[in-house]
Amino acid sequence: MSELYTKHALKYAEAVKDNVYNAMFERPSTLALLDEVSGSDVLDIGCGSGEYAQWLIEHSAAKVTCLDVSQQMVDIVTERFANKVSAYQQDIALGLPNERDDSADLVICPLVLHYIADLTPVFAEIHRVLKQGGYLVFSTHHPFADIECSKTGNYFEREFIEDEWHTIGQPVAVSFYRRSLTELCQAVSSAGLVIEAITEGCVDPQIQQVAPETHEYLSKNPNFIFMKCRKR
Ligand SMILES: C[S@@+](CC[C@H](N)C(=O)[O-])C[C@H]1O[C@@H](n2cnc3c(N)ncnc32)[C@H](O)[C@@H]1O
């Protein structure tokens, strides 16, 4: 697990409140795929510092359960929202052993799946905990963006990438899995989830004011991919 989400969890929490990639691009694009959440039971997988939890509480979700592999992130969420959410440490690669079958109206999983090698069992667990008619919304690295980091040059072969990000204003080592669009979609489908929508995000015009070069880049290049997947 990257120190970005453990040692630097507090700095990360501060950065994503109002930064370009998370606050102005990723979150609005993910939220655009949600139906009305009022009265819903929601599971937030890889909750991070709780920016989505805050939105879900403000939009009257009936129950918000947050989980993250990083205990530091779980502590931040617990301190921020006290008894308004239930938060606990869980590695999603090991399943969702604390969640009941057919219990969630909505599962969200923003910017987490690229940290996991094998997505098939993850989507199978999400399918198990979703109610019939419930849905998953997730975002992850766009396969056509990550191919830029490839050392093998083989788009179709899953690849472990080591990189350095400046999310918190200093370089931090990160690693993630690059995979093809086919692998991603097959993992969703093999779990029995039906892809209802795929988007590549909407670039908020306010990015032009604060970061014109990033606005230009995001307007012309794929960066994240967003999917809405239903349990029928
Ligand atoms: C980029 S952050 C996104 C946080 C939050 N979803 C958001 O969009 O604000 C990725 C989060 O996924 C968590 N994470 C990474 N691997 C995970 C795993 N295997 N199981 C659960 N959480 C994981 C990290 O600890 C981190 O908090």
Task: Please give a structural write-up.
With 232 residues, this protein is of the alpha/beta class. The protein has one domain (3-142, 179-231): Rossmann fold, CATH 3.40.50. It is 33% helix and 27% strand. It has helices at residues 9-15, 20-31, 51-58, 71-81, 120-129, 143-146, 181-190, 206-210, 212-220; strands at 41-45, 63-68, 86-89, 104-110, 130-141, 159-165, 172-178, 193-199, 224-231. The strands form 2 sheets. It has a 7-stranded mixed sheet with strand order 3-2-1-4-5-9-8, sandwiched between helices. A two-stranded antiparallel sheet has the order 6-7. Strand 4, helix 5 (120-129) and strand 5 (130-141) form a beta-alpha-beta unit. Helix 5 packs parallel to helix 7 (181-190). The radius of gyration is 17 Å and the shape is globular. Bound molecules: S-adenosylmethionine (SAM). Residues 5, 16, 22, 46-48, 51-52, 68-70, 73, 91-93, 110-112, 115-116 line the site of S-adenosylmethionine. Keywords: Methyltransferase, Transferase. One of its GO terms (molecular function) is S-adenosylmethionine-dependent methyltransferase activity.
Number of strands: 9
Low-confidence stretches: none
Number of helices: 9
> Strand-and-helix sequence, N→C?
HHEHEHEEHEHEEHEHHE
N- and C-termini, Cα separation: 34 Å
Q: Quote the CATH topology.
A: Rossmann fold
Percentage of β-strand residues: 25-35%
Main sheet characteristics: 7 strands, mixed
Q: What is the SS-derived class?
A: alpha/beta
Which strand order spans the largest sheet, edge to edge or round the barrel? 3-2-1-4-5-9-8
Tell me the Rg in angstroms.
Answer: 17 Å
Our count of domains comes out at 1
By CATH, the superfamily comes out as Vaccinia Virus protein VP39
Percent helix among the residues?
Answer: 25-40%
Question: So what's the oligomer here?
Answer: single chain
User: Taking all residues together, what is the mean pLDDT?
Assistant: 97
CATH class: Alpha Beta
CATH architecture: 3-Layer(aba) Sandwich
Taken from the alpha-carbon principal axes, the silhouette is globular
